Amino acid sequence: MGLTVEFRGRRSLFKPESVVQAVSNVDLTIEQGETLAVVGESGCGKSTLGRALLRSTPIAHGRVEFKGRDITRLSGRALRDARSQFQMIFQDPYASLNPKMSIYETLAEPLLVHGATDRASIRPQVLDMLSAAGLDPSFAERYPHEFSGGQRQRVAIARAAILRPDFIVCDEPLSALDVSLQLQILKLFTALKQQFSLTYLFISHDLARVFGFADRIAVMYLGKIVEIGTAADLYRAPAHPYTRALIAAAPSPNPHRDIPPAAATLRGDIPSPANPPKGCRFHTRCPQVMDVCKTREPTMSDLGNGQRAACHLLTQPPMAG
Ligand code: SF4
Ligand code: MG
Fold first, then answer.
1. Collapsed DSSP state (helix, strand, coil) of residue 170
2. Ligand 1 neighbourhood includes 293 CB (under 6 angstroms)
3. What ipTM was reported for this prediction?
4. Which of 127, 174, 254, 299 is surrounded by the most beta carbons within 10 Å?
């Protein structure tokens, strides 16, 4: 609730300490068993949000609760224990696997670290998890370099799932893969979710890719959530100009969808999060910008069915003519 993550620049004699709010006052509830996608351009704070929820980056203000328990200030052993219930999967499976560890060791390690007492059960657990991740259990003695990118991502996913976590943050897990592999890995995420009752926060820069996969989608811009709703509602009736621009920018826009042409272009660069524009942070790039947008920050409007968006157009439509 009201989660803010700040990065502090160095203070010097000539320069006051600079504070970059990578995530600014975000309110987000993730229901058990759902897949919530967080979408936005690079640098919008979505990875930082994911890390903050897992308590792997410091939190400046606000609170993170997990299953009703406040985990914002946990440390030491209590934090380690809580962390066994959540996992993170990264974009680059090459970097997230230790090249010196066999696949067996890679999957057995989290079980050992989190105190598996019955050592005899480790081997069958590892082999079962490899099958569940679509890998031949006979691969167990091989090393990461012997696998393709897609297979390595399967190993990383198996490693994340082996502790039977409740919640997995998937940080752009498809970005390093080609399109046909992306679809296979999405299928794997869906299958594992059903098999192990997982909840996902799925971070992506590709809105089109998550429509058929996520239950709900949160769209982020410069550290703020600008729109959130079910995937179906955002697909049918995106309310925020930024969401509409992301949809229009997708490689294969659906010609049957009714997106106002004014929203079709996303111009200009993303402003620096160190110095976000006043008023609506999107106003420097918004095709529908009004005067009020430059000075007053829009608040979230409730659009029904849990869909919310922060845009002045929703509270004060532009004057006709
Ligand atoms: Fe565009 Fe104004 Fe809405 Fe921001 S508040 S998205 S600038 S119309
Ligand atoms: Mg990122």
1. strand
2. yes
3. 0.97
4. 174
